[in-house]
Amino acid sequence: MLSIFVTLQFKRDLDKVPKDIKLRADFLLAILQVGPVGSALKSKKLKIGKNLWRARVGAYRLIYSFDSKSLVLLRIRHRRDVYRNLN
């Protein structure tokens, strides 16, 4: 199991997300902690950034990074806005 670290921006984004998306994101985080890449997550590696991945949560996207010991949650926003200012 990976250790989860949450950025301040992720916390701010999560406060603005609808309640149903928060519940789905909680379920997704449990899956991410076991294995951050997989077809069940519909996760993809982003072309921007070194080690950035995204997972779908309805119309929202969860942006994260990981290594062998930790998972860092970076953003969760609507798909039209999430990719802005990621660099």
Describe this protein's structure.
This protein has one domain (3-78): YaeB-like fold, CATH 3.30.2310.20. The protein has 87 residues and is α+β, with helices and mostly antiparallel strands. The chain contains two helices and five strands; from the N terminus they run βααββββ. 29% of the residues lie in helices and 31% in strands. The chain has a five-stranded mixed beta sheet with strand order 1-5-4-3-2. The chain is globular, with a radius of gyration of 12 Å. 22% of the residues are buried.
Low-confidence stretches: none
- Overall body shape: globular
What share of the residues lie within helices? 25-40%
What is the class in the CATH system? Alpha Beta
Determine Rg (CA atoms, Å). 12 Å
Secondary-structure element string = EHHEEEE
Summed up, the helix count is: 2
Oligomeric nature of the chains: single chain
Enumerate the strands of the largest sheet in spatial order, edge to edge or round the barrel.
1-5-4-3-2
Number of domains: 1
Main sheet characteristics: 5 strands, mixed
